[in-house]
Task: structure prediction
Amino acid sequence: MTLYPDTRRSALVTGATGFIGSVVTASMAAGGYAVRAGTRRSPSSAASPEGIVPTPCDLDDLAQTRGAVADVEMVVHAAYGDEAGMVTQCRLLLQAMTEANVPALVYFSSIAVYGDRTGVIDESMPAIGSLGAYARAKVQCESLVRAWARDPAHPQRRVLILRPGIVYGTGSRFWTDKLAERIAAGAWGNFGRAADGPAPLVHVGDVGALVVEAGHALLAGASIGWPPLTVLNVVGPETPTWNDYFAAVARRIGAPALPAVGGTGLALRQFLAVAAKIGRRLGLAGSKRTALAPTRAEMAIFGRDAVYSTQAASNLGLEARIGLEDGLARTVFAQPKL
Result:
């Protein structure tokens, strides 16, 4: 799907200096939008790229949020902060959008809303198992966004809820830089069957491109038959095992082949890691390598047999196209802190 307008459309991106928000902002400016780059901190005085205007947008400040959304046609809500404040911030943003009559919204949710569900998972499936604070907040925000989209008093509204998988690429603190640090420190390995679950990876460049295309469709709205509310999983074209992803990152940073670590060896590393982390918090000398071992919660993710269907996105022509090797080749890794 390609729906580039003749003139620039206007949009606000919240969290525009974050990992995903910064890529979305740059992609939208390149794709035909006049973008307000919303940020909690005061905008830098440095010159911004064409099509991007740094804009104060503290989502805890209603007056500032009202100013950020004034006269824009669409909001991309990519801001991520403390879980305790996410729902309040989402509600405040929707209030400001209602007052300014902003008709379109892209809301970044997460596959975390599915909980412990396994098998093939599509967008209609509710969560299974217990949800952490982050997932619970995303579920509550989705509920607010759904109600906003379906308000009968505003039939012009169009909303897209995106549920990305594991977003990696330049600037990904956890799934790119920290992983590389753990590999370089010798704290990582091939964990055998415990990490043979499918890794639902998506490169951040694909996420930015998808928002550009989907945004034009949202703004075209009823004229092209776009529904008031759409929910899409966002996962890349390849789903390697987690062990395969770890090995690919190791090759990309020039690290030795990962050793096999499993069974009692893995359990011992996890046990020692708890003590090492406590010691480091207390300022005690300790082994950073020991503290960087995988946690039990991480291993639960690595072993989960869950495949997130992207058929709904494909039906709309909104497909991720960047494969793993290409994605890692595009990725600049931060220098490991050894």
In short: The chain has a mean pLDDT of 92. Residues 263-281 form the longest helix (19 residues).
